[in-house]
Structure prediction request, 942 residues.
Amino acid sequence: MTQRIELVINDRCRTVEVASNTTLLEMLRDQLKFKSVKPGCWRGDCGLCLVLIDGRPIKSCLVLAQELDDREVVTVEGLLDNGNITRLHQSFIEKGALQCGYCTPAFLLASEALLRRNPHPTRERVCESMNGILCRCTGYKQIVDAILAASE
Amino acid sequence: MTKFKYVGRPVPRVDAMEKVTGSAVFTDDIELPGMLHTKLLRSPHPHARIVETRTDRAEAVEGVVSVVTGRDFPFKLGIYVGDRDVLATEKALWVGQPVAAVVAETEAIAEKAVQLIEVEYENLEAVFDARKAMEEDAPIIHERLGEYRTLPIFSPRPGTNIASVFTLKKGDIEKGFAEADLIVENEFSLPQVSHAYMETMCFIARHGADGNVEIWSSSQPPFIVRYLTSMSLDIPLSKIVVHAPYVGGGFGGKAGLNFEPLTVLLSKASGNRPVKLRLTREEHFTVAAIRPGLHATVKTGVKKDGRIVAEKIVYVFDAGANADYAVNVGRAAGYDAIGPYDIPNVEAESFTVYTNKLYATAFRGFGHMELHWAIERQRDIIAKKLGMDPIEFRAKNVLKPGISETGTGARLREDAANLEECLRRVGDALEWGKKPAKPKEPWKVRGKGLAVLMKGPAIPPNTASSAVVRFNEDASIELMVGTSEMGQGTLTSLTQMVAERLRVPMEKIRVASLRGTASTMYTWQTVGSRGLFMDGRAVLEANKDAESQIKQIASQVLHVSEEDLELAEEKVRVREEPWRSLTLAEVVMGYMYPGGNSIGGPVVGRGSYIATGLSVLDPDTGQGNPAVFETFGCQGAEVEVNVLTGQVEILKAFSAFDIGRAINPLLVEGQVYGGTVMASSIALFEQLIYQEGVLLNPHFLDYKIARMSDAPEDMVSISVENPQEDGPYGARGIGELTMIGMAAALGNAVSNALNIEIKDLPMTPENVWKAVTRQNPKLLERAKRYLKGE
Prediction:
């Protein structure tokens, strides 16, 4: 069963025909070709496919696409400011908060959501918010440093 | 402070912009016109003969293009021993081994059809424990072991489950033990673990009707993939192109050859259309290669003054069902069996053994995290028995530059890394000798521990690299090197070396993000912490070559000798009269005189490097020189353990490595933090748990890896920089080293805190609690009394 949904993705209105069993991850990656949304486990364990839905960080593999009618989705491309990187991106780059880069979109989106809610989080609060996303390369330290630096 | 403009500075990664904007391309991001998808049928049995496979029901599903079984692809794969089936042919050797595959228009169709394949199995007796697999009456997993293509440096024992054994002999072991005042013997173990890189493996292949083969693979070594695919499938090398997009973490698991040959064959069987094979996490956990487990027996003879006089070691690596790469893990652990110690009498045997479990491959550290777990726990146990300080005991025995001999009898070079300095620096950072502060809760205890470590790249003696530095019209540069980018950042460090020598700003140097055999220069593999050193040497040669071409042209134009010219600020100029200069842009495409006469031509610098001075180790004694460099280091930790629950918290984790020179301190720190947390995660949480060969924890929910709040807040990376003369700018490799010592350091710290001896990993709360219950029940009783408020 397909259904037509209307939603906003990265500030642009989109109309999409989606099947009832299509996840948001599949819709974004396979149908709409947002390849920055990374699959890692397809079942909510790793957090790599995280996107913002109405500003909240959500694992896109756990959401059915049809539920997205009339909602707003932001992928990492949507964090750019008129095509330019922001202070948060800059902070990730300067602090060395990325290595293989596979988890980077998820961490950037989760950080953006956190800093919007809480512009000056403690280290502990940062860890709590990011615990749902796995990274095997960095040891997390430089990611924490980057988020804290961006909040200063 | 560095005297250089780029080298030694924490410049941002060259791939950072692509990665933060989401435009970095990984293999699964690629879609080709007409591309098909595939699903694998996996064996439900750990050891079973395949009697018959019926595929007709699967073939009948609409949208299915081809269905294949192991018998369609009678090829053997492997980098060192050709023991691996493309798909299981005669027998299935582990639960999860792919036995058949469906190629279809969509993944969903393939998924549906693959379940309709019927396989009739005849169950065989299976063996899951490596030491049991070595027993005489054990079921044999590879009956044809004697027929496999094997590199002559390995010694398989046909008719047994021993894929290879490496023997190290030095001095006279009996005499050594006779001289000893104290002999200590212990057994240690580590389970198999998963690489758990974030990007599951993905492959795309197109086998053209004209015989040309194109492969896209999340691969660490595109050149070795091309070579081994050519050799295994009998396709001419020149007909294969391997592309390696960004790799989402590798850690050794994406080294060697993986599912590239299967994907090529699937494309050929599917009317030459491109085929993608990607693995879900659950499939990945049961199909893809893992790190071997180890059982170690270490017997050490020491004098009262703390000198180690003899050490006898038996390592048994649990390689699982295939040992095509793992035989070299066993070998490397064999020749480095005693770690960074100078011991006159040594005997070590390192076995790589087949079992009916997931098969092992390279893993960051290549056997060294495993062996250091054993010997560095052993060192602390001995020090305690001698009543000696663990640092003092180690300092007495560790390798010293210019003086000591390694286990393989190689004299340490004068400019070798300085291990004693690393040991001292970590000791100082941990405030060694000072008791840890008292924990808040009285049922918790604290302890400190450290471990020293060594490793060099485990490579064939003729391992080589090459590089090209090619100028563009605007004097920007294309740097072409074969190293894959899997997060380690070598491409950034190599770019720094080009900028440094050719005086061109970093942002004008481009390294193509799509790596591969057709677009980059040859390098053997991106493994073994070799990239920066070996590709770096090739880059330095290419720099020199390009510089000399520039100077040759400029010397004719400026009428001075080449020796009087220098490069600076994107110009070539006369050293003593810097106002006499040409911009690089005027020179690098060839110089044109005002009248039109032109000289030179485009500047292309080329450089090659091949490891020199390495030897094929003696087959009976393992003596010789296996490594172009050895990086030494020390890692230490302070932990807090909850006696009641066995929960370990890492309070401090410090590392010091003598890397010769930190080309990019930011990247070095990233490696150290990453390695520290990976090792901590493996030490405290990780194990592949099987029941009768069935993996019980094939998800991140039950195979726990460290999350952000598990990472110690107080992590410090100390760079020791005693340059190695032939390293690029003095540098040695670092990538793998950062996790080799941390597990043992944590084991030592936990043992110290609880006054027990932990010998087996992982140190899960359950295992730690059990060890306390057995070895120090009084401590547990006291903790319980505190809890009751007594």
